Amino acid sequence: MTIKIEAVMGETPLAFDYGNVFAREDVGGRARLRVGLDGAQDAAVAALASSLRGPFQLLYVLHTTRTGTELGRYESPDLTADAVQAFLHQFGRFLCEDSRHDLWLRSHDDDATIVLDRHNLIYAYGPVHAFEAGLKTLGVREGESPAVPDPHMHHYHQEWDQTEEEILRHFDWHIKPLRPADVQFDDSGRGQQRSDIDR
User: Fold this and answer.
1) What is the 3-state secondary structure (H, E, C) of the chain?
2) pLDDT of residue 11
3) Is the pTM of this model over 0.85?
């Protein structure tokens, strides 16, 4: 198992937990859930998605690469629920254990969006009551909004480099440029493991 994000105290990286908690937030007049889990974020995304009808579309935001791959916003074609679940099953560990990306899942007919971001936080927009019920069945409790440690360190691991290439071959993605808010790290250098610190 590799580590996606750590807290930093002085110059020392430290493991931390979000506490398996969710909180409801208001963003521009629209309700969303902010979810902080201590593991299995991919399984939670899959469970939340299972309550939606679809059709689905994925947005894979590759903001950092160790392989020289083109950075960008990779949009999938329309997908069935089975295709989404298969994708999460195949690439879930990569999504949860490496910081080079964000994943957005959109269900058009439900007007719902689920985001797994580079901090391993999940954001869920749409049928929040159903999402809350689903999270509670997973043992996630309602509480204070989970906070990202400040400062913290992101990790990009060599062992996931092949999977980065595989995920970009998985669909016939439509590639769009990164937006300014997507950019994580300007240098795409290589090494055994790369890390950067957000302060």
Assistant:
1) CCCCEEEEECCEEECCCCCCEEEEEEECCEEEEEEECCCCHHHHHHHHHCCCCCCEEEEEEECCCCCCCCCEEEECCCECHHHHHHHHHHHHHHHHHCCCEEEEEEECCCCEEEEECCCCEEEEECCHHHHHHHHHHCCCEECCCCCCCCCEEEEEEHHHHHHHHHHHHHCCCEEECCCHHHCCCCCCCCCCEEEEEEC
2) 83
3) yes
